[in-house]
């Protein structure tokens, strides 16, 4: 069985050798060889190997380029008698015209196969060459035979092996790194062609400027030496001629650095980088060059010389094909502009390719928003001439189309009248692409609020060239109602999930609503617990199921601060506080605060639970000790308050607060009013206040849209000697404008009256002036005068503030403000005289800094009276406003 298996395997290897081994024939001298039968020392397959082994050897020799002659041996073994020594074998080869004769034996011991062979030359009387090859396993016989034939070839064709590879001249680059690139290895056949390829590979490393290969004979073969000359490294990179950019700015844009190898191609690439850097600033005539300055230790300095040229600007913007609008009108639509007189200040005339590409889209939108539905705008063509840029834009206006018939088709879930009332396009005279898109969003919002999250609204546009009208059809495919299969919340490492879920206006298993989802995101932002809120939706287990994924990035909600500042009401002040706005991740607020200022000292402890009994019932308390220095007296108060709040409508919360205050009036000056002097000593205020507040601002700090309205009534006199009824009302609205700017308008009014049998203290009356009322006036500077011409508080007041807020450094939260304030206080029996309102205007900067909000504003008094200042700075820092 083993013999059969071995014979089959040998046949297989034999066929593979003959058919698949590449026939690489080298152009060498012709060598004629005779291969004699090998003696086989193996337990099985002896006869087969005796016959086949010479054939396989002969086949390999032919592939190497030898001519193998037929030995002409008879079947019997009598020929062995004539070949018992080297002389007989040499004679045998000469008789058959052979240059060499090969013979030997194969021995198999266990799994080891060894082949001992000899080769004798017939051209001289030299001793036979001895060759040996050994392999493991019959399956590796082909490899063993091939290795043996390679050894024959080295002698037959006078080929030499590579005895050693030597790397010289390299200092920085390790020899092993070079040898890894070289394909020729120790022990390989010496081939000049392979060394040529190795030379190219070493050059490609980019580290050497010269490579020479030398060979030297040795007893073991050729010694190949690669003589290398390394390229110098960059010691320093210098720049000259640069004025627009400093050296650091230019080097920061380059890919070459000090210590890297000097590479001409890399340097040329960086020349292009420098020129591109200047062209971004419209220095299109810039020219850059370089010098390589050799220095010691195989180093070099690279000097880039820059001829910046003049900054070129847009000289002219021409339009071709505009008949309906003048070039002046179209230029106003574009962000790119021609150089103007104030270009040094406004940067007019500078070329920004991204803006220019967008200008083509802006012009297209302009035309299509004015009825030119077929308008086409070509790509702007630029011409650079001397120090100017000339831009030409080709326009195909087409005809102007009016709005024709407007219809709604498809899945209509509400009355057509109700849907048409939401559309603006029907009231337009001419076709307007922007309004068309807005109408699609409005219809989508209507359907999404009914659960159709995947509603598809396709606008059908049919132009009527004959009447120059366009008929519009809103085709609605509502799809299926979608429900929230699951709401997955991630990223909240501290805030408990129930605190997050109670801010969501959508619920698991509930119907999808686009407006409620937006409301949920706004609610999460208003918590001010998270740096980022990301909302993603994906398909659920069925077409009518949706997975809502809310990803949160929490930010610190606990702070310990110790610092100080200055405000126009307190002058210098110091403050220390410990605040946690998300206590234990439950959304509770705890604050311990101490403030010591020029006019007051206050210690406060407050706590708020936003969801008492797991319902949206806000509850909290405040405890305080407040010493305040008024102009004519001092007030030392100890008190506290208990408060509750409950949402009663959308964005609307009702609050109820009970306050108890024990105030001691002392240090009354001689110029104090009679009312103040009557209050000397202890005064007790026990009051209850009801407030209704509507707050839809998108953020608590620096809002950009939304409203903040409130109305409150406070009744004091539930015990104690202080008794009054105070009414306060306020309306405020933030509205986004353009370019990220925001408008803010606020109106505020109040009225207070004394309760029967009680006292209305001066400190509960109304004064105005200062950073939170009318800026430009001193704190409490707007007041009434009693019969002794002493300042006293008013019984009524009105206040109006208008602000325009614009981003200065958006990333840092720095905002500029321009404002107008007006208002006044009035007596008990006085009517509000609108012509007596005091006025101020000004501007400033606000920054929501890491240590709290900062305001720096200057107000001008517009209706200055005798003895009044014309204006003043208002400054506040920390949590004092």
UniProtKB/TrEMBL annotation:
Residues 160-231, 232-309, 312-398, 482-555 form the POTRA domain. It comes from the Bacteria. GO terms for cellular component: cell outer membrane. PROSITE patterns: POTRA. The chain crosses the membrane at residues 12-28. It is found in: Membrane. One of its GO terms (biological process) is membrane assembly. Keywords: Cell outer membrane, Membrane, Repeat, Signal, Transmembrane, Transmembrane beta strand, Transmembrane helix. Pfam families: Omp85 (PF01103), POTRA (PF07244). InterPro entries: Bac_surfAg_D15, BamA/TamA_POTRA, D15-like, OM_assembly_BamA, POTRA. PANTHER family: SORTING AND ASSEMBLY MACHINERY SAMM50 PROTEIN FAMILY MEMBER, TRANSLOCATION AND ASSEMBLY MODULE SUBUNIT TAMA. This is Outer membrane protein assembly factor BamA. It comes from Desulfonema limicola.
